[in-house]
Amino acid sequence: MRDYCIRPAGPEDLDGARAVMLDTVYRDFGTGYVPRWHGDVIDPVAAYLVPARHTLLVALDGTNGEVVATAALDSRGPAHPPNPRHVAERYPCGTTAQLRRVYVRREHRRRGLARRLVAELLAFAAADGGYRSVYLHTDPAVEGAEGFWRSLGTVVHDEREEVTGGQGIVHFDVSLGALHPAPPSRSAPSARSAPSAPSAPSASSAPSVPVVPAALSSSRPRPPGR
């Protein structure tokens, strides 16, 4: 059985984490890199490593040390717009732990990695002491995504049921106790490593991504946090 190491991301993990995230938005979501939605992918240090109440986890393949999965949490609730007003009001910033970027490379799926990563995120949120709810949204068009989150959480709003179809995404509430707290991650550092400036993803590991041009927009509207 393949062995994986799950740990908080350090500076040495950022290129690999970006590659996993960018491959997912290109290949699974079909949107490609969109600056207003994917700023945290390009600068995960500012998004997840610097804020004390945020975290970015990575799963490393035990055979070669490659980053094969990611999962993140931050204290930003869903914004309105583009999300429904009642969802934004139910999950305010500061007290809401929003789960983000739970991505696993295709060849490493169906091995329990996503569930292990979410367990770690929920344990992190519970230890924080200031989070009162856990929220996420997902695109049901992505294979396996809706079923996975339905196994862990409760649907609070399905935009497909709206007259206009909304953005077509499903909003979930996840209990802090949905999964038993995960045991301490093997090789996880006792303190967060000092962040360093992220380097751009390499052409060999991820699609070529312009970081600055705002002209890169998608004709297919998607909510932030993908």
**CA(first)-CA(last) distance:** 30 Å
Structural class: alpha+beta
Q: What is the ordering of alpha helices and beta strands? A: EHHHEEHEHEHEE
Q: Categorize the overall geometry.
A: globular
Question: pLDDT average, as an integer?
Answer: 84
The main pleated sheet reads as:
7 strands, mixed
Specify Rg, calculated over alpha carbons.
17 Å
Order of adjacent strands in the largest pleated sheet: 1-2-3-4-5-7-6
Instruction: Work out the strand percent.
Output: 15-25%
Write a concise keyword list for the protein shown above:
226 residues; 6 helices; 20% strand
In words, what does this structure look like?
- The chain has helices spanning 14-27, 35-42, 44-49, 85-90, 113-128, 145-150; strands at residues 4-8, 55-61, 67-74, 96-104, 133-138, 154-158, 170-174.
- The chain is of the alpha+beta class.
- Strands 1-2-3-4-5-7-6 form a 7-stranded mixed beta sheet, with helices on both faces.
- A hairpin with a 5-residue loop joins strand 2 (55-61) and strand 3 (67-74).
- Mean pLDDT is 84; it is low at 181-226.
Task: Map the helices and strands.
Blueprint (H helix, E strand, L loop, with lengths): L3 E5 L5 H14 L7 H8 L1 H6 L5 E7 L5 E8 L10 H6 L5 E9 L8 H16 L4 E6 L6 H6 L3 E5 L11 E5 L52
Parallel strand pairs: 4-5
Antiparallel strand pairs: 1-2, 2-3, 3-4, 5-7, 6-7
